[in-house]
Amino acid sequence: MARATGPMVLVAPFAALALASCGGKEVERPRLDLALPAATDQVARAGTYVVTRGMLEAAVRARAVSKEVALRELLDDAVLAQVGASEALDLREDVRRNLDAALARQVVRRLREAAEAKGPLTDEELRELTAKHWREVDVPERVRVVHLVVRRPANSADNARAERAAAAIREVLLQANTADDFLTLAKRAAAEQEKTGLKVVAERLPAFAHDGRSYEGDDGAMDGTFAAAAFALPVGGTSVVAETTFGWHVIRCVERLAAMPVSAERRRELFRPEAVAQRARRSYEAVVKARQSATPPRRETYLETALASVPLSSEVTRP
């Protein structure tokens, strides 16, 4: 027996379960009434179940069969569903579990079909996904730098001394010919300054964009003032002392990396699967929220039984 789709989302899974529960035995069919008045939207009835014209047309489209075949399948499903209900199959936990699974698959399938039917990505979806995946598809110009920072002292009364120390170290760093020279001189100066109680750090930094976004490593961002000072430098150039919330910096530009943008057309192609999944997920969340607000929670004991068998230990056994 074909599984119903379209309007039969509730009936067909239950009908299949009813057929299985009957063990293949012959069941008594409710009377089929196929001669209803033309004025009504009903086209057939099986017991208490009514097939409407809209349901029949939807079944024809979904199954790609004739009206006669679709009607017979709808009525077969209805008969078996009513037999199952008459035997209280809907009260059995295993049946409810299988029904829930079947209905969930139907919901997910329909939400995905609806998401696909919305067509190409909108401009808003393109912007959102581009921002999410900018490292892969919208890479801006970046710089790599080495720098030294005299950290802001805990006592603000020492700020002026820290700034003077950074300026003095900068004069030494101007002698550097390479980034390695810069770091060697900076670390030597840092060791001297720390004897006076100032905290000094010298390091290489991952490439970052003009707005401070880090292209390498984690998703952190550089201070805006620091990023602006770095981008103002030519390769090999050394900055004046730049103050940020962290302290006083001396920056040397090591490398500039060109932007690597991907065209909007190509991004629309690349993001299509994710956009469809995102649409479906948001629709699903909206459906769940609406149902939760309209329907009181139902206690499912089979879920409690299943959860009780799950160990609560934090240890994970790997295959």
Short description:
The protein has 319 residues and is α+β, with helices and mostly antiparallel strands. Among the domains are: 6-101, no CATH class; 141-258, Chitinase A, domain 3 (Roll), CATH 3.10.50. The protein has helices spanning 11-21, 53-63, 67-86, 93-117, 123-132, 134-137, 159-173, 179-194, 224-231, 264-294, 301-308; strands at 32-33, 42-46, 49-52, 138-139, 142-151, 200-209, 242-243, 247-257, 260-261.
Task: Write a structural description.
The chain has 319 residues and is of the alpha+beta class. Among the domains are: 6-101, no CATH class; 141-258, Chitinase A, domain 3 (Roll), CATH 3.10.50.40. It has helices at 11-21, 53-63, 67-86, 93-117, 123-132, 134-137, 159-173, 179-194, 224-231, 264-294, 301-308, and strands at residues 32-33, 42-46, 49-52, 138-139, 142-151, 200-209, 242-243, 247-257, 260-261. Strands 6-5-8-7 form a 4-stranded antiparallel beta sheet. Strands 1-2-3 form a 3-stranded antiparallel beta sheet. Helix 1 packs across helix 3 and helix 2 crosses helix 3 (67-86). It is elongated and about 95 Å long. Residues 1-39 and 312-319 have low confidence and may be disordered.
Relevant terms:
319 residues, Chitinase A, domain 3, 4-stranded antiparallel sheet, 3-stranded antiparallel sheet, 11 helices, 50% helix, 15% strand, elongated, disordered N terminus
Radius of gyration: 35 Å
Biggest beta sheet attributes: 4 strands, antiparallel
Helix-strand makeup class: alpha+beta
Give the termini separation: 40 Å
CATH architecture call of the domain at 141-258? Roll
Mean pLDDT: 83
Low-confidence stretches: 1-39, 312-319
